[in-house]
């Protein structure tokens, strides 16, 4: 993958082309007296959850209704949300005042660029647009070949209506995004076989609409049955699953949920969220979207610069091409200010739709045609458009690539990782519970601790020697020369998630203790850094190491746990 680093401040024209200026919104309601703002879907969600959890008189029918609303909440339109808020008598949480009807609120932070203040810009709501506008250079750097991918890690900004839930909903956060460019006619992936047998919880939109729960599916079956749109999208879903579970996310509290129709981003052809369950419920942490060719087409149209790829043929090919030629004059007379939108809709027709229109025009002379950007049907007459299939010889094929995008919310993943890795175990006394962060070695910030069993100079010399070897091996560690009991020092390092602890109790060999099992082995001083590195790099597991080195039985003093 090609890594890029694009600016956080984005000119308005870029985000106008991408659709964010017009469509990057959440539905908001206002307290009609104080003007305080709330996210409409959050109020309805909180109301339904509160009723289900606290209302002891709730009938089974009403409970089923509230559960169904929670299942399809993201699919409700502004009108449907407003109707439910009125039906349930939902009011402003703080003042109990009546609320306005829901209306869209743009989530981008606006700013001005340059001293004149005349050039509008926005803080980027995602990192992706910087990659799209640099597509030509990235395509060139990849040898003008597809598929290829570009990645970016950086800050993104969203003017959330009601930030809450600590790290989970904030206005500035770190995104890591991959834009994988692929031929829209061939979305297969050469490495799909590596993940096709993975089985995990998936939640297709049909199951959500029917009120069913997520079920375990093989990603290979989900792609072959059409539940997931294509192999490349399926490949990245599989890779995201492996990534999250290797970080330490519990596979039984991870699911992939397909977006509902109204919930889909304005650019997406298919989209799945990796949702992780934590104390706040199911939290979206990664989005994996097939953005189709929307972005590159939108920037091409706005800039006039063709963002295309090409495939050269070994021999010229005779191809039949659909040629749609709208009459600008006739469309202008009929639709005046709406001429451009009708013209673009005609040119964007697929072959089947265009040939159906051609047949209808030849038989009836006119046809009703839906223009999405106008939100209504218009009457197209035979004089307004010419539709033909023409034979041409082509030496190459030009096309606009599709984009598959995994987008990682880093803060959310880290928060859920903290919850999933935290546990408690019994201490020295019956009532005492000791805190442990069970981070896998891969992500533990501190890989091991080194401390002498007792304060003796000969042990401290060995501890410093081991520390030097660990530093040379690139292993982050803490050296603890305090006089606390060994049990207290073990508990202290367990509490910050350190996987291994090295105790110097001899000048030639030391003990290495595993955090989760509390098992210990004896290792020669000169070998200990390489053993730790093996485990930290994932070359060996602790179980592998246990087979190779003699077990060490802790004395009562070594196993002592701290007093409360």
TrEMBL record:
One of its GO terms (biological process) is translation. It catalyses: tRNA(Gly) + glycine + ATP = glycyl-tRNA(Gly) + AMP + diphosphate. Residues 85-426 form the Aminoacyl-transfer RNA synthetases class-II family profile domain. It comes from the Eukaryota. One of its GO terms (molecular function) is transferase activity. Transmembrane segments: none annotated. Keywords: Aminoacyl-tRNA synthetase, ATP-binding, Cytoplasm, Ligase, Nucleotide-binding, Protein biosynthesis, Transferase. The keyword tRNA processing does not apply. Its EC number is 6.1.1.14. InterPro entries: aa-tRNA-synt_IIb, aa-tRNA-synth_II, aa-tRNA-synth_II/BPL/LPL, Anticodon-bd, Anticodon-bd_dom_sf, Gly-tRNA_synthase/POLG2, GlyRS-like_core, tRNA-synt_gly. The keyword Transmembrane does not apply. It is an enzyme of class 6 (ligase). One of its GO terms (cellular component) is cytoplasm. Signal peptide: none annotated. It is found in: Cytoplasm. Its main location: cytoplasm. Homodimer. Belongs to the class-II aminoacyl-tRNA synthetase family. This is glycine--tRNA ligase.
């Amino acid at each position: 993958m090609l890594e890029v680093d694009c600016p956080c401040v984005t000119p308005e024209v870029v985000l106008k082309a991408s659709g964010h200026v017009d469509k990057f919104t959440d539905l908001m309601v206002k307290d009609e007296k104080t003007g305080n703002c709330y996210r409409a879907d959050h109020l309805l969600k909180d109301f339904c959850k509160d009723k289900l959890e606290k209302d002891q008189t709730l009938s089974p029918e009403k409970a089923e209704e509230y559960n169904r609303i929670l299942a399809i909440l993201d699919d409700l339109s502004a009108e449907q949300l407003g109707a439910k808020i009125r039906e349930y008598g939902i009011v402003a949480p703080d003042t109990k005042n009546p609320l306005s009807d829901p209306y869209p609120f743009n989530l981008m932070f606006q700013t001005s660029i340059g001293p004149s203040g005349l050039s509008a810009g926005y803080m980027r709501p995602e990192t992706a647009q910087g990659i799209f506008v640099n597509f030509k250079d990235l395509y060139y750097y990849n040898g003008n070949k597809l598929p290829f991918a570009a990645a970016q890690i950086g800050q993104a900004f969203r003017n959330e209506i009601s930030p809450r839930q600590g790290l989970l909903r904030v206005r500035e956060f770190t995104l890591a995004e991959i834009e994988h460019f692929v031929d829209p006619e061939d979305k297969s992936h050469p490495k799909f076989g590596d993940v096709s047998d993975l089985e995990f919880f998936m939640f297709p939109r049909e199951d959500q609409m029917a009120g069913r729960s997520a079920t375990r599916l093989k990603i290979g079956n989900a792609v072959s049955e059409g539940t997931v749109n294509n192999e490349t999208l399926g490949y990245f879903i599989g890779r995201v699953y492996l990534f999250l579970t290797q970080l330490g996310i519990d596979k039984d509290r991870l699911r992939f949920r397909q977006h509902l129709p109204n919930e889909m981003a304005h650019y997406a052809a298919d989209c799945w969220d990796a949702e992780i369950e934590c104390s706040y419920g199911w939290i979206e942490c990664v989005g994996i979207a097939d953005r189709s060719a929307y972005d590159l087409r939108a920037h091409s149209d706005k800039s006039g610069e063709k963002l295309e790829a090409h495939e050269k043929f070994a021999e010229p090919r005779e191809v039949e091409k659909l040629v749609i030629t709208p009459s600008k004059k006739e469309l202008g007379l009929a639709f005046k200010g709406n001429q451009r939108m009708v013209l673009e809709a005609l040119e964007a027709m697929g072959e089947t739709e265009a040939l159906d229109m051609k047949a209808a025009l030849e038989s009836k002379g006119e046809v009703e045609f839906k223009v999405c950007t106008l939100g209504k049907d218009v009457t197209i007459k035979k004089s307004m458009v010419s539709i033909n299939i023409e034979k041409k010889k082509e030496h190459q094929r030009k096309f606009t690539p599709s984009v598959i995008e995994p987008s990682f919310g880093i803060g959310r993943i880290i928060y859920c990782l903290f919850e999933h890795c935290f546990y408690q175990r019994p201490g020295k006394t019956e009532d005492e519970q000791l805190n442990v962060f069970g981070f896998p070695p891969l992500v533990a910030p501190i890989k091991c601790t080194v401390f002498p069993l007792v304060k003796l100079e000969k042990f401290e010399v060995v501890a410093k020697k081991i520390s030097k070897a660990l530093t040379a091996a690139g292993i982050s560690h803490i050296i603890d020369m305090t006089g606390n009991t060994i049990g207290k020092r073990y508990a202290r390092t367990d509490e910050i998630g350190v996987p291994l602890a090295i105790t110097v109790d001899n000048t030639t060999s030391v003990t290495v203790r595993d955090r989760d099992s509390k098992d210990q082995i004896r290792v020669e001083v000169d070998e200990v850094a390489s053993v730790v590195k093996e485990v930290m790099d994932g070359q060996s597991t602790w179980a592998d190491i246990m087979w190779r080195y003699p077990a060490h039985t802790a004395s009562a003093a070594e196993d002592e746990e701290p007093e409360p």
